[in-house]
């Protein structure tokens, strides 16, 4: 019977190379799920504790004055651990510190069997949103009273280990056998534990009865979805009155619900558009309950007309809100389940056929791929959707996923009849749905693709509609980069290895040799092209270079660009594409060779091989199509190159977008659908839809086929919000550095009034970066935690969670933080806007669109720059108030809001709130009194 020693350490930092040392150790000895012994001790580290560690752990220097040196407890610790499995949450960290101290004290290093509970959590709890100890404890309802103290963390890790080993024993035998084959590549010594679980489960029918076997892989047995009867609802007017005003309507469904006139007006407008076959632009101010308003109308129309309605959103958070909050409310209101499904592209769903193929070829896997396969094996015993968004794969795992997604199996011979296809199950559910929820990306892909990407639909509601134009521009354009192209070529090389074809007894050795030769040639040419583009863009000094919002240098390709550079780039691109053409030609020959045995050899491996050859040929066609004309310049498309000037010398990004997406949207969307309802909280500028109509291609529609409605927010902004503008900031044009110093000083002063709880929005990544480092100089870690997009690690959602975790924190963000970041309640008291959010005039798309407007005799500032900035300003403003009880200050560090002629357009586009324009010090004083 195994004995486990669960260890946790607190240290002065995470780098042994910087002489970081232990300050506390906690050990729990456990066998059969029962604690046998506990050991805990503070440790004198022979150095000072950094303030951040003190704020994290609560351990101060004075707490350790009488603590023992590690050498004084080393023998006791060594004997405790000696014959046990050593378990830790991130074993490499704890073991490296332990062994370093043992070596220092003259003990041999430990070579025990190990278990890393981070790794095991990823495998056995693959759907967990986080694998940090505190968040796992919360998810699993493990008591964690004293986080970041060694014994408490060790005890929680012990409870976590017990849960993980229980999950291991619940798995079916075939899953365990696969895991056994993968276990040697993992950090944790799992072989004995898996073998024991296999013996225990071999004849356990209670386990096997819960799963089906497809392609040799156990998957969770699906419950058959019974079709819901679709009895007609009462007439719409009666139904909507019942919903909003009836005692058994929304008042009963939503606690504390209050009827809002604007919400009802929106429902009526949406229904009118759907039922009369019109298009509509509807702006719904924050807090009107926009999503519930259009869902009420969409559901009624779908049920009564037996016609599904498509709903498209920009963010996954809104999709989750619709499915997890709003749809259940409607089901309660209706008194029956609704058929509402989230519809995603094929790339989201696993192909069991392709995964089975990869499982049989695991002998060359690295650590990340072994971990990925292990996670997926366990996840398949949990999931009913097969949707990859349910789990978080390691970095290399995302590349592996491309091999095994349903997108990879789109050319399967039996694609339409594969009873084990999660994609097909998703299609079947969509076919029976009342509502289909998708995203703008898949909607736009469906519009441009020859292959149908969405089920047929005639009526569409587009929420977060202000993003539709930018999403469509991306999909009607090009996005290519060196890293992705190299990855594709590497995958080609792996695939064209003779060992891949050997089991199928097909004589293609010569073709494979030629393919490998062409792949190497393509890699070499791609390197030449990338290095040339990188060096050329980096060396341009006589032209002002713009920067992207993540700090990459940009070079706009225009008809007056350096002719020699453009011609050379074109020639080098053609040299790269020549071997790509050859790979495509040779792949076509391989397809014919394999096709001859597909019908006679019914093995699954042959089918996978055949599909992948077709996919590789299509990939070649896609690269050729995108690159062949990239350096042919015209007046209809904006094209530019980005480089990370501080990065690798071949890391380049190629982009193109149509200058005007309006015509394509008109032709492919509004002209083909009976009704498109576009809604958002930000669609008007200065009370008019004109700009958005031009942007989205709605200008050409006559008034009778387009309905416009703007509904104000019900929030009491006048009582809950103050707008403050300092009148003493330096002029950013002539005193840029002084302006940044002033912003930093203002943020620091305001943070003392608001106790942090501040979101700062920038239009420039460079300004954000400089402000961040200035704040880090003046703000001690025990004062404020400062998080910055692009500097602090983690996604936007991760940064937001970290911001909310700490009591006194400041969050700095650029473009993607101007909207879609909800921080309700006391977590956010102040929104600082560094500059009015005009797109930098040197951005590639901005330059070309300005030029085009000038050629038509129009004013680019009034027609494009100003309305764009107003919409973003409204979006940023909307970050502060997210509920009726929120209150706070919007602090705008840009005097143009008051002094420029166009400032009034910004102010008139937000709710009427008290505005103060005076010195920074007086504003801070006023803020302190008001808050």
From TrEMBL:
Gene3D superfamilies: P-loop containing nucleotide triphosphate hydrolases, Ribonuclease H-like superfamily/Ribonuclease H. Its EC number is 3.1.-.-. One of its GO terms (molecular function) is DNA helicase activity. The keyword Nuclease applies. A motif (DEAH box) lies at residues 463-466. Keywords: ATP-binding, Exonuclease, Helicase, Hydrolase, Nuclease, Nucleotide-binding. SMART domains: DEXDc (SM00487), EXOIII (SM00479), HELICc2 (SM00491). CDD domains: DEDDh. It holds the Pfam family RNase_T. Residues 249-515 form the Helicase ATP-binding domain. It is an enzyme of class 3 (hydrolase). 3'-5' exonuclease. Belongs to the helicase family. DinG subfamily. Type 2 sub-subfamily. PANTHER family: DNA REPAIR DEAD HELICASE RAD3/XP-D SUBFAMILY MEMBER, REGULATOR OF TELOMERE ELONGATION HELICASE 1. This is 3'-5' exonuclease DinG. The gene is dinG.
